[in-house]
Amino acid sequence: MANKVEFLVQETTTPQTVTERQKEQIIQAILQSIANTPYQSGLEEKACNAVSYVNQFSDSKDKTLLLSAELGKTYSILE
């Protein structure tokens, strides 16, 4: 029977400027301002573009660590 090595996975995300919570707050502010604005032609398209832009914005670094408790080694993967 072969020896098995167990690994633990540890993931972290380090936002540089905008967190996921801040993105959600920005989107809510966009939607609230649409609700308070009289209708204008093309408003829906502009709102969709704004929300889409916020959703695409990410300058975070994802880091995954594989930890081997038995071997005492750490393997790092930057995504």
What keywords describe this structure?
rod-shaped, 2 helices, 3-stranded antiparallel sheet, 28% strand, 3 strands, single chain, 79 residues, alpha+beta
Explain the overall architecture.
The protein is of the alpha+beta class. The chain has one domain (about 5-79). The protein contains 2 helices and 3 strands, in the order βααββ. It has helices at about 20-35, 45-55, and strands at about 5-15, 60-70, 75-79. A hairpin with a 4-residue loop joins strand 2 and strand 3. Helix 1 (about 20-35) runs antiparallel to helix 2. The longest helix is centred in the middle third of the chain and has 16 residues, at about 20-35. The model has no long low-confidence stretch (mean pLDDT about 70).
Strand-helix topology:
Blueprint: E1 7-14, H1 20-35, H2 43-56, E2 61-68, E3 73-78
Helix pairs in contact: 1-2
Structure, briefly:
By secondary structure, the chain is of the alpha+beta class.
Spatial strand order of the main sheet: 1-2-3
- Indicate the mean pLDDT: 71
Assign the structural class, choosing from mainly alpha, mainly beta, alpha/beta, alpha+beta, or little secondary structure: alpha+beta
- Percent of residues in helical segments? 25-40%
Counted beta strands: 3
Number of helices: 2
Q: Radius of gyration in whole Å, from Cα?
A: 21 Å
Number of domains: 1
